[in-house]
Design brief:
Layout (H helix, E strand, L loop, with lengths): L1 E3 L14 E4 L2 E7 L11 E3 L5 E3 L1 H17 L8 E8 L5 H8 L9 E6 L10 E8 L10
Parallel strand pairs: 6-7
Antiparallel strand pairs: 1-2, 2-3, 3-8, 4-5, 6-8
Length: 143
Amino acid sequence: MESKVVEGKAKPRGRFPHIKRAGDFLCVSGTSSRRADDTIAGAQTDTFGITRLDIREQTRAVIENIRDILASMDASLKDVIEISAYLLNMEDFEVYNEVYAQYFDEQGPARTTVAVRQLPHAYLLIEMKAIAYKPVSGEEPTH
């Protein structure tokens, strides 16, 4: 088994890796729109201190963070077989789905989406985790 904290990504807020390989499977830990400098994509504060949160931008950033984390193990979004998404507000489901559909279709990963009461930062609207199948040998099995 191999675990990795990926350079250039936000440092995990606990003692866990961004990604772990277990045989032919890659497990991506819960990922948010947090950047390496600890700012959050989709969270803008104006000069009056009013913060605006954008589920569209956060969803895109989360999926792209997962894409980059997978790339650190020579995998891609095409290798993802399951995604679990945690939304702070189920009223964001429609917009989240629109962005998600820019990356995946009905041939993509199995998916579960649930609403949660809270995420690790007040500005986070979404977090996702993923499981990918990427054979160590690089060859897909024949059936």
